[in-house]
Amino acid sequence: MKRILAIFIICFLFIFSLYAQYDTSQFTGLWVLQSVKFKHPVDLNKDGYRSSDAFWEFDECRKDQQLELFPDYNAKAYYGTSRSGCVNHQVKQYKWNLKEELVKEVKYEMGKRVVDERRPTVLKLNDASGNDAKVFVVIGVDENLLTLKGLVKTGTNTTEEAILIYRKRKK
Fold it and tell me: Distance between CA atoms of 65 and 80, rounded to whole angstroms?
């Protein structure tokens, strides 16, 4: 009886590990930022108008963002590197991985706190020091579009939840 139970558990764990694996080839490539939509309107350019569309708020250099995910799980993020005149251009190196993680979202409905728990696919970008981890919930991916949900910096010490849409660039 113990052997049957042990074999059943081993088979279950094996099947579960196959189910949990992701097709990372869909994620590899150079992704160019196309759109950023904030959950709540913000005024990043200090013109007195708040907008949920970050491309109305970003300057041309801040719109210029690319994310390159390599098959060896290395990644590079390019900020302001493909536009001339951007003085704060940067290239950051990361290690990336995909996994299913428990995500909790808290909201208030009719005065009551509601916690939504789910296990979506999460894209993690970790820098070499481990200090600058970026975590994004994968909303969708296909051969041309990558849609992520995560926190975007809106100031020196502030972030806001946003939907980021990237388009794959052919090399």
Answer: 6
